[in-house]
Amino acid sequence: MHGLGNDFIVVAGERELPGDASDLAVRLCDRHFGVGADGLVYILPSERADFRMRILNPDGSEAEQCGNAIRCVAKYVYDRGLVARDEIAIETLGAGVQRLKITSVGGKAVRVRVDMGEPILRGLDVPTTVDRTPVVDHPIEAGGRTFRFTAVSMGNPHCVIFVDDAPSFDLYRWGPLLEAHPLFPRRTNVEFVTVVSRSHAVMRVWERGAGPTLACGTGACATLVASVLCGLTDRRATVSLAGGDLFIEWSEADNRVYMTGPAAEVFSGTLA
Length: 272
Description:
By secondary structure, the chain is an alpha+beta fold.
């Protein structure tokens, strides 16, 4: 399945995360010797919600949350009749229980609106080593170059950097250096962002444990929050990623971030 090209191997039917899940993620996510994916996602039972989601990155590490993956999970359970409602709740590792609203056509989910929760802005909780709230326009040096970043957690850490031309920015050079920078004790996702207007930003992402991907839902949410904190966009905006657009809203009424976007199923099969 994929959300805007951010693709996942989605596994259902297990009761708990298998003990070899990390090794499986490394093997199966390999695009040359495995199925190929940006992550391995398990749909598990939950005592707190309709379902529980666990996500393994291609390097075997576990992600706390993923906005594109959770839309895929919603589509999977809705399309197969595992839920009979268009509003469901999914438990995540890093962002607690998240609530989703499904828009369907012909009994199939086509778009999902996700309540991504309140952004975490205290630097030590993102986490970074910077003891400020919020961490906005903070200098960071990597590879002989100084950037300025804004730190946001959407259940997982993000380092948002505004640049002149995000689509042509060299992710492969700067992404790994910033992901593993000492300012981020649990590493970080890195977003390079160009603001086009008050209602539109363009983003490219280097994902922690995965590298460049076509889209990152939590990254798009972090991008909007950072753009608002820096006075660059309004609280409702379209964030354009390499794989397509997400609509993000940071509500003044409840301080929660809402993400709306598509999910698609590509193929299904049985692992031998």
